[in-house]
């Protein structure tokens, strides 16, 4: 077996064996495959596709290219979202799950094109360390039940190499490569229950419901082959999640949620994840019963307490959890007014995502929306507020044109389109 032989066979549409794939990934790990050969491999996979067995073997080989963590019999939970605009779920979710007693070891990513990354958000808490060593991360999670770090070389390192090369060889948008990329990292982080939040709509990787559902089922089936408990959600990404877009505002929204359970959409999503995690470990129970437990966690202030413990343990200043409004100090506000009356028909979520990125980067700010699709607005109503440290630097931002308003009534959108435990 040699590299050239594997490459030529994949080029010629042969199905690679488990040994072929393990050999290739191992060789990348050892540094004996050069970047041009990795690029050729990825392009051949992209063009010719991978069948189910190949995808499974690639997932396993990538997971095994670094440390594979294990949490024994603990009720460990991991959540993965395929990314969207305004998706701050992870930061709000972890303390909720952990407050109930689930173990939540989480490795999160940075920004991918127009979608914001969890790491950029959490790093806005002064002192917070996203770069714990794996051994410190494991110790922390075992001690307090919660930890959030950025991607590290110690977990699925070859996936990291592939990802970098995919990003500049036009080989990101292959559903099998995406699947093996996500699934290998989830396997390596080692939780027993994994929930996939597959976004669907104009602001996501998959624009149609059918494509999102198919991906959700495929990735769950792969994880089940590795004896994981799994569940999926298909959730709407035709408008941002929650009210805020932009790292600082999203962090504010996620931490405020722990006190207020607002906004409604974030609460709905987090309850769904909580409920699926509960059912995965305790069996099917009436939604009403789970809702009681969920309410109690908030009422007793345990979400906030847990978040304080978590942030302190990772070196961050807990005053931002106690009072998230500190995050908004020094920001100025500009109102975005509606120039017409009517109903919100839709939003250009990708452009909103890019504006959020620009505002985060340039003026340390973001957007707070007052409207959702289906809402009625009058001319002159405030559609959204833009926040910035220096409002004089807000050149050429046309947020209003991202919001489509027409006279005809438009239905409100459901957030959760489907959700199942498999
Ligand atoms: N997220 C990942 O982790 N990998 C991909 O390939 C795409 C999205």
TrEMBL record:
Keywords: Glycosyltransferase, Transferase. It holds the Pfam family Glycos_trans_3N. Its EC number is 2.4.2.4. PANTHER family: THYMIDINE PHOSPHORYLASE. The keyword Glycosyltransferase applies. One of its GO terms (molecular function) is 1,4-alpha-oligoglucan phosphorylase activity. The keyword Membrane does not apply. This is thymidine phosphorylase. The lineage of its organism: Bacteria, Pseudomonadati, Thermodesulfobiota, Thermodesulfobiia, Thermodesulfobiales. It catalyses: thymidine + phosphate = 2-deoxy-alpha-D-ribose 1-phosphate + thymine. Residues 343-406 form the Pyrimidine nucleoside phosphorylase C-terminal domain. InterPro entries: Glycosyl_Trfase_fam3, Glycosyl_Trfase_fam3_N_dom, Glycosyl_Trfase_fam3_N_dom_sf, Nuc_phospho_transferase, PYNP-like_C_sf, PYNP_C, Thymidine/pyrmidine_PPase. One of its GO terms (cellular component) is cytosol. Homodimer. Belongs to the thymidine/pyrimidine-nucleoside phosphorylase family. One of its GO terms (biological process) is pyrimidine nucleobase metabolic process.
